[in-house]
Design a protein that fits this description.
Length: about 625
């Protein structure tokens, strides 16, 4: 077949395939045109799920008589004129294909009047021929677009439409999304002559919250956190449900970029990362979030349906969203109701690089986690790093003797039993490791405790307490050399009292030793530019003033005592009580404890002896 220019009729049909997927696609394009025209009231009438009739009526600026025919032509728009306009789009629509594509697969009537005209004019176009006729009509200032018999001339596409109920459900969900994007507009949705949705303009916060409740439901509002964060020319605001408000499906996830509805992968990834371990695998976050930035920093012309965008500073936007939401969720988790207002907008950090070396410091233990790139202890590294090496050195665990079980002190009655050997599930992960220094790791309990055997006795190890002990020891040993500082992608600004601002200057060397670097940002303002890896996942807005107060209170203490206090503070902030462990990390922690702190295994705050004596008695004397 030779190369040829497509005739306009065929070109419009192809374009309609991209723009008009189903009736809700028509509603989306026409309502966005109404909002671009400045309308603050839009009425949507639907018959038979949109297959019979779609009517959109607005009070926008209207279209002049001499532009009506042009409005129904392909690539005709008033929103983009030059390449510069394309680089900074402020409108929802801009391609100029919607009306032409819709009219090519329906019977379309376009009635409009501008404020300057004394009468309205009506344009009609039908099907493939798309011949447009103009006649006078009665209509107030604004526009009404009627789309009748959608896909009447393309039977193959019409048969792919779903039931009336399903198609209207898509339209209903679309109107819900639009209602959340434009609080200032009144939206009325009717189906088969009956009012289904009516969202009145919401210009105050209480009115906006009422609309939010109407769209998302009252349960969402019970768990919603108001979020607002700003850095440079990027602003994030909206509502975010706490983990308690998570849902069994992802039906309450709304994101907007400069007022445009989005299903963007980068945004969704940042939000999922912010929740991280707070949500179980079978639950989904709920949120309504708005991102506002310079239109020249985002490309909206990357998807036929305009569902995705491309950010020029994608990494910055991703980290900004992640850190703002991460901070909001964790602040709520530690009792935000009792905290004062935050001292700064947000902070965004670069992820830790794969390898971070601390010149001149002692070898870094594996137990603090792979994310900090600490080296594994020699006992663990021997035998190879691959799975084959571990398998060749593995010896089946020897169960403790019956006599040993009988002689233990406490009762083991509450250990949950897992049905599989997966360490990622709650309960007990059925695993065991070779003996190290007389101890053998047996199984992981609730991903926070390790059941181990020592000299024929069972005991339970608190992994958080063990890791904190080891980390504190390591910090004190390397205190003189200091912690390596990692740069923040977006520095954090703090408004500090004069006494704390002066303290920052006086204790500059001490703060640098802790991996914290600050500089003056003007009157009573300090800017945090670098932090240690330990604090990369913490709420710096809250913690830095707390740290400065600790330093101020310990200024009269000797250097060694102050170092102990600060190292303990770093440990408590860096290792959360809710941290989740795998069996491999737990075994390494036990190895380190046995090697360097065997006396601590008698500390009941960290290690609790367990007994199966009562259980065995029941077996022997039970019926």
């Amino acid at each position: 077949m030779p190369i040829r220019i497509l005739p306009p009729i065929l070109a419009n049909q192809i374009a309609a395939g991209e723009v008009v997927e189903r009736p809700s696609s028509v509603v989306k394009e026409l309502v966005e045109n109404s909002l671009d025209a400045g309308a603050d009231r839009v009425e949507i009438d639907i018959d038979k799920g949109g297959a019979k009739l779609i009517r959109i009526r607005d009070n926008g600026s209207g279209v002049a008589k001499e532009e009506l025919v042009l409005a129904l032509s392909r690539h005709a728009t008033s929103k983009v004129a030059t390449l510069d306009d394309l680089e900074g789009i402020n409108s929802l629509g801009f391609r100029g294909e919607a009306l032409a594509s819709i009219s090519s697969v329906s019977r379309l009537t376009f009635t409009s009047r501008t404020a300057e005209q004394s009468e309205a004019w009506q344009a009609q176009a039908e099907g493939r021929e798309m011949s447009v006729t103009i006649k006078p009509a009665a209509h107030p200032v604004g526009t009404t677009v009627e789309v009748v018999d959608l896909f009447f001339n393309t039977p193959a596409r019409r048969k792919f439409m779903r039931s009336e109920k399903t198609e209207f459900a898509h339209i209903d969900e679309l109107v819900r999304r639009i209602a959340l994007s434009r609080f200032d507009a009144t939206l009325i949705l009717r189906h088969n002559g009956k009012v289904v949705r009516q969202y009145k303009a919401a210009n105050t916060v209480p009115e906006q919250e009422r609309r939010l409740a109407a769209v998302c439901g009252t349960p969402f509002m019970h768990h919603a956190l108001a979020v607002e964060s700003e850095h440079s020319d990027v602003r994030l605001w909206g509502w975010l449900a706490t983990p308690e408000g998570a849902r069994p499906q992802n039906d309450l996830q709304y994101t907007y970029v400069n007022g445009r509805m989005m299903r963007d992968k980068l945004i969704n990834h940042a939000i999922r990362q912010a929740y991280d371990e707070l949500l179980p695998p079978d639950r989904f976050a709920a949120y309504v979030l708005y991102i506002e930035l310079d239109p020249r920093q985002v490309d909206v012309n990357v998807h036929p349906a305009k569902h995705e965008v491309r950010f020029h500073q994608a990494r910055l936007i991703h980290d900004f969203i992640f850190q703002a939401l991460f901070t909001a969720l964790r602040r709520e988790g530690v009792g935000a109701a009792h905290q004062e207002a935050p001292l700064a907008e947000t902070q965004v950090e670069l992820p830790v690089s794969p390898q971070i070396e601390y010149p001149g410091q002692a070898p870094r233990p594996e137990w603090y986690g792979a994310e900090h790139s600490y080296r594994a202890p020699a006992q663990v590294r021997e035998g190879g790093g691959g799975s084959a090496g571990r398998a060749s050195n593995y010896q089946p665990p020897e169960p403790p003797s019956r006599e040993a079980m009988r002689g233990m002190g406490a009762l083991l009655t509450t250990l949950p039993v897992a049905t599989t050997a997966s360490a990622s599930e709650p309960g007990v992960a059925i695993q065991a490791a070779p003996k190290q220094g007389g101890c053998r790791a047996l199984t992981l309990v609730e991903q926070a405790y390790l059941l181990f055997e020592r000299d024929g006795q069972l005991a339970l190890l608190s992994l958080v307490r063990a890791e904190r002990l080891l980390l504190r020891h390591w910090l004190l040993e390397t205190w003189g050399q200091g912690l390596a500082a990692q740069p923040l992608l977006l520095p954090v600004s703090f408004k500090l009292p004069k006494n704390l601002s002066s303290l920052v200057e006086e204790q500059e060397r001490l703060l640098k030793r802790m991996g914290l670097e600050l500089k003056s940002g003007g009157r009573d303002t300090m800017i945090l530019t670098r932090v240690p890896a330990l604090l990369r996942q913490t709420d710096l807005v809250r913690l830095l003033p707390e740290l400065l107060q600790i330093i101020e209170g310990g200024s009269d203490s000797d250097a060694g005592q102050l170092a102990e206090v600060l190292c303990q503070w770093l440990v408590e902030q860096g290792i959360s009580r809710e941290k989740i462990y795998d069996f491999s990390t737990a075994s390494r922690l036990l190895t380190e404890l046995v090697a360097d702190f065997s006396d601590q295994l008698a500390d009941i705050r960290m290690v609790r002896p367990l007994s199966l004596a009562a259980v065995l008695e029941e077996f022997e004397h039970g019926e």
